[in-house]
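Usage

Read records sequentially. Each one opens with the input sequence:
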Amino acid sequence: MQAYIIRRLFQSALLVLIISALVFFILNLAPGGPLSGLKFQISAREYSEASVQRYKELLGLDKPVYLRYFYWLGDMVRGDWGDSWTVSTGRPVLGLIMSRLPNTLTLMISATILSLVLGLLIGIVSAIKQYSIIDTAATVFSFVGISIPTFWFGLMMIVLFSVHFRILPAGGTADFGMENDIGNRIKHLIMPVAVLSLINVAGWSRYVRASLLNVMQQDYLRTARAKGLSGSKVITRHALRNALIPVITLMGLEIPILFGGAIVTETIFSWPGMGRLYFQSLVSSDYPLAQGLLFVTAVLVVLSNLLADIGYAIVDPRVRLS
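and closes with the structure output:
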């Protein structure tokens, strides 16, 4: 198990390095170039070819792109991620990201836990009660949940619970002056988490149901029932563990979708996280901030897949030998 984890860690580090190169080169190929965002910082009178050339020399953009990548990577390793060009009057990129990262992690972890618990629960009940009213209702819920666009569902929740019933706040992480009130923060968290986890709950529950139904038809489970084991023990001790093998792989692949959904969700609910900051950096062509955010997001995605691989190995020991 230890050798398997070390091997996966090495592969993850190599993957992060490759992703960092892709992030840097793709952003530098974007239309307008890295200096397009500086138009927001200087007046039209000052913006000229001479000023552009001066900024290129100042920022090192007159050097070949491959050299700039190595300089950028070296600065990233040392903790110097550069300064934002347009957000908060040139604040350090690393400081901006670290100020937003806790909010995004709170949203992502809450949505992942909710998706996992509800997805497993609905999937197991649907498999046990196959073709029942409960199973039919779960199937309808899954199809509706997968079909509803995130932005539409978020706006409808705001209209219903914030405008009509006025029981939940429309946005933000806490009311003014109540940042340390856990209950108030949870109220602000309810709608963003519900919107972000809807698709995963709908999808994961179907995969759990299908995988569990497939495992329940195996001969060793018929033998367990023939020996007199109760239905709950057959499910929890024998069927569920094997049924989770493909589901864990799927969850590891789909968790990164939450990072993409966070951009829309945080924008709709004015949630001050990395997703909203990333949207602002793209709108204003803030390349240093966009590069830093994409790098951090890539690390989080690789980490989530690494955890899924470790979970896969725990459930199925044969994976450790591959």
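Summary fields computed downstream for this record:
- The chain has a mean pLDDT of 80.
- The CA atoms of residues 93 and 289 lie 6 Å apart.
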